[in-house]
Amino acid sequence: MLKFSHVSTHYGPIQALDDVSLHVEEGEIVSLIGANGAGKTTLLMTLCGEPRASQGDIYLAEQSITHWQTSLIMRSGVAIVPEGRRIFSRLTVEENLYMGAFFATVSEKIELTQQMFDLFPRLKERRGQRAGTMSGGEQQMLAVARALMSQPKLLLLDEPSLGLAPIIIAQIFATIERLRRDGMTIFLVEQNANQALKLADRGYVLENGRIVLEDSGEALLSNPQVQSAYLGG
Ligand code: ATP
């Protein structure tokens, strides 16, 4: 479904991604782990078209999207839950959801919102509340639901567990697993290596903009290099 082939990305003279190749197949959860500043967000943003890859190619369903506008990439079935959630804090839960369904008609928006309320009953309870007044975990749920409103084929998640309490993190990861069971393809970027690899079919380790390891989630969890660098053991 998604393929990076020898992709590099620069911010002016700074090289943030260096010859990255990876793939995500339909129905998989693939996790990308790496430390602060490794280039994880840059990788997701390069996929979304901003910044542009300076070398290499990105393919979505076998088609090169390397030079596509971000809006076209989003219309092609990609949705992102950005780092820090970026919900519209002054808008209500329901209004935030509507913002996610940017290509839908009004009746489709209503139908999709109902689907999100079935998936996240907590959001239904809070539908009229300003999003900025909700807890961090609820805001993260809203950010995921807002992304799902565009009915993506590929869901990108940038550090969904960041800054959340362990019990809330467990709920977020349970939600991700449920989405996969429903057939969603998920590319998850996380510093929380333990949780992200437990859930993943396959994983990649990014260091200084380069992919240094690639294996099944299970194999990476028991890899001594991963254990000492990312799992505190
Ligand atoms: P974090 O977990 O802190 O978000 P990350 O793995 O997502 O880290 P990136 O944010 O992709 O890492 O950053 C990768 C490198 O690119 C870092 O060295 C960072 O300083 C640099 N970088 C990121 N954004 C920019 C920018 N807009 N301009 C210049 N350099 C940038």
From TrEMBL:
UniProt keyword terms in alphabetical order: Amino-acid transport, ATP-binding, Nucleotide-binding, Transport
GO molecular function, one term: ATP binding
Keyword Electron transport attached: no
Domain ABC transporter: 2-233
Domain of life, per lineage: Bacteria
Keyword Lyase: no
PANTHER family the record matches: HIGH-AFFINITY BRANCHED-CHAIN AMINO ACID TRANSPORT ATP-BINDING PROTEIN LIVF
Similarity annotation: Belongs to the ABC transporter superfamily.
Name of this chain's protein: ATP-binding cassette domain-containing protein
Organism: Celerinatantimonas yamalensis
